[in-house]
Amino acid sequence: MPIQYPHLHLERMSGAIPAWRGKIASTDLHAICQNVSDGGGRLVALWGSDERAQDSGFALHVVLVNETGLVCLSVALPAEQPSYPDISQIFPAADRMQRAVYDLLGIRANDARDHRKWLRHAAWHGFPLRKDFVRDPRPDVEPDDYPFVRVEGQGVHEIAVGPVHAGIIEPGHFRFSVVGEKVLRLEQRFGYAHKASRNASRA
Fold first, then answer.
1. CA-to-CA distance for 147 and 166, rounded, in angstroms?
2. pLDDT category, 195, cuts 50, 70, 90?
3. How does pLDDT run across 119-130, given as a tens digit for each residue?
């Protein structure tokens, strides 16, 4: 088994890559992620889904990898106020994934340090990947005031790039805080051309 944890039952998935899947309780998520991290494993992906049509509330899906292979864990969450333990202190890459899951589905990471909206850009009201989402036809009046973290000090410069780029990459806004050629902090913001819901307006 790729992960050893009490009461964890994994099913081998068919395919060329060694992979397993299983269901866990939200209370076990943090400990399992810590177990994988301590063994040198990493977070591959984190996303959510609306399972209410199957009377299952919401679900969080986490893919981890270690030297044995991939493990896809699904966490059942309640339909009312779905939440789960923050894992961004174990896997820093989870921070933006958790913020995107909240912006799109309203599934919140408890005790997360950063709850800033990352994808919405005042373009829609509500959570566009929920099955019952209905786009508000009213024009947007909410200002898109994103609280970028500013780095200050002698010799620090802020360079803003985008969201319109000359290349073919997805529109995104980047703010570099630099001293000379050293980047002190980079903040990104995406979702300007988000197409996840047929009812969601484009930003």
1. 26
2. low
3. 766 677 788 899
